[in-house]
Structure formats: structure tokens, C-alpha cells
Design goal:
This protein is mainly beta. It has one domain: Beta-galactosidase, Chain A, domain 5, CATH 2.70.98. It is an enzyme of class 3 (hydrolase).
């Protein structure tokens, strides 16, 4: 952390070449913030969710959207809310306090009021529906280098094309986290 409160985060992944791993689904980090950090603004692709293989019609620009509006209620709960080619992103509370983040490369980000395990039941499928999910009192934020594409170009079960798969190999990325403080009293209450 520098004198202005800016934190530099670096993540390095070194693939074990002795293992046979076909591909990774996602490479990045996830953070959990208090629920009140529910305003998201970013400079990247459009407010509708977009993915590596589903972004050509999503234009780059400055967008603002509440976290609750980013969840798409697919019939079966699943990954949702991703934004690609993000240059910077900020999460703020109603008073304008929060954090700003930017990477050393284009990033994928998503914010929602659900944990990953709320959306994916793993191997045990209980045939839940999105309407059964209850938002958590937290903001779950992912800042990723990349995730595998959606796939499904010829059927819903089809894997992404090879160029949209996150191969098992070494990955590195870095990003900055900077506080956004509107009032000193807000900073004191956060860090108490």
C-alpha cells in the first residue's frame, strides 16, 4: 500500500505441467463487500452480461448499474453478470464511498448479491429455479483475468470453441485498488 492508500495486487498461477488438466473455467479473484456497496460503475463493455465469446455486440463505454440489476434470473441458476474488457471499475455506497480498481490489462468483472455456490449446485442437481434464490446481505465481486466462453453454438451442451477456452497454463495479472472517500467521518467508521 502506498501513502495514498492504493493497494497493488498481483496474482500468479503456475500450472503443474505433470498434471493432465483439460482447461480452467475462470482465473481471477473474488471479494465480498458489505451489502451497502451496491452501486457499480465501469468503463468496459455494455451493461448486459457479456462473455469472451459473447461480446461483439456489447459496446465499450462508461456504464452505471446497481448490483441487484446485474443478476439475470435464468430458469436454472447459473453464472451471470460478467462484464468483459473492463478498463476500470468502482463499487460505491449511497454516500459515494467505495473502491476503484483497474488492471494492468483488460479485465472481467461481475458483482451480485449471490455466492457462486448459490448459482451452481455442483454435481448434486436439485432442479432449483432462479425465483427460489434469496439475495444475500453482501456484494460478491469478482475481478478476473479471464473466464472460459459460454459455448453452446450448436446445442446447449456444446463446449466453447477452442479459442474461447481458458487453457491450463501459467497466468499472471495485476490490479490496483484505490479507496474512494467522500467524507473523513465515513473513512473512520469503515476502518474502526
Amino acid at each position: 500500500m502506498n501513502g495514498e492508500g492504493v493497494i497493488s495486487v498481483r496474482q500468479d498461477f503456475y500450472a503443474d505441467t505433470s498434471r493432465n488438466v483439460p482447461m480452467m473455467f475462470k482465473y481471477g479473484m473474488q471479494m465480498v463487500f458489505p451489502e451497502q456497496f451496491h452501486h457499480m460503475q465501469w468503463y468496459g463493455r455494455d451493461p448486459d452480461e457479456n462473455y469472451w465469446d459473447r461480446k461483439d455486440a456489447a459496446f465499450v463505454g462508461l456504464y452505471t448499474l446497481p448490483v441487484r440489476a446485474q443478476f439475470h434470473p435464468y430458469i436454472r441458476p447459473q453464472e451471470t453478470a460478467n462484464k468483459t474488457d473492463v478498463r476500470w471499475v468502482q463499487l460505491k455506497d449511497d454516500d459515494g464511498n467505495g473502491i476503484w480498481m483497474a488492471g494492468d490489462t483488460l479485465l472481467n468483472v461481475e458483482a451480485r448479491h449471490f455466492l457462486d455456490e448459490d448459482l451452481d449446485e455442483g454435481l448434486e442437481k436439485n432442479n432449483r429455479h432462479a425465483g427460489e434464490l434469496k439475495p444475500r446481505q453482501m456484494t460478491v465481486f469478482s475481478i478476473d483475468l479471464q473466464q472460459t466462453g459460454v459455448g453452446g453454438i450448436d446445442s446447449w451442451g456444446a463446449w466453447p470453441l477452442p479459442q474461447y477456452r481458458l487453457n491450463y497454463q501459467n497466468y499472471h495479472y495485476q490490479f490496483l485498488i484505490k479507496p474512494i472517500i467522500q467524507h473523513l467521518s465515513a473513512a473512520i467508521s469503515v476502518y474502526k
